[in-house]
Amino acid sequence: MSDDFRAPRPATQPSHAPYALNDFQSTERVPEFLSMARGVQSVGFLERHRFASLIVAGVTTMAMIIGGLLIFL
Questions:
Q1: Which pTM value belongs to this model?
Q2: DSSP state, 18?
Q3: In whole angstroms, how far apart are CA 13 and each of 16, 51, 63?
Q4: How far apart are CA 31 and CA 53, in angstroms?
Q5: For residue 69, what pLDDT band results from cuts at 50, 70 and 90?
Q6: Distance CA 3, CA 26 (A)
Q7: pLDDT (tens digit per residue) in 12-68
């Protein structure tokens, strides 16, 4: 019998989990990736480009209204 036999550790997560439970705390890259994944939806983008986003929202709204009116004419 081998001297270095170790009992299996108690299961703290499903065996099919692709990562350990503490990977997100120990990985520095994940918050950076999530902030990049948010992209245009982030509040910082809207604060930096407030007037541009207002113009885009206004033009989009007018285009939808005109398009809706053209459907009924």
A1: 0.37
A2: S
A3: 8, 48, 51
A4: 25
A5: very high
A6: 33
A7: 555 555 555 555 555 555 555 555 555 555 566 667 778 888 899 999 999 999 999
Output the DSSP codes for 26-37: H-SHHHHHHHHH
CA distance 10 to 24: 21
**Residue type at 26?**
S
Which one-letter amino acid corresponds to residue 21?
A: L
Q: Which DSSP category does 49 fall into?
A: T
Write down the residue that tokens 């990562």 correspond to: 19
Amino acid at residue number 47? E
The answer to whether 3 touches 9, Cβ cutoff 8 Å, is no
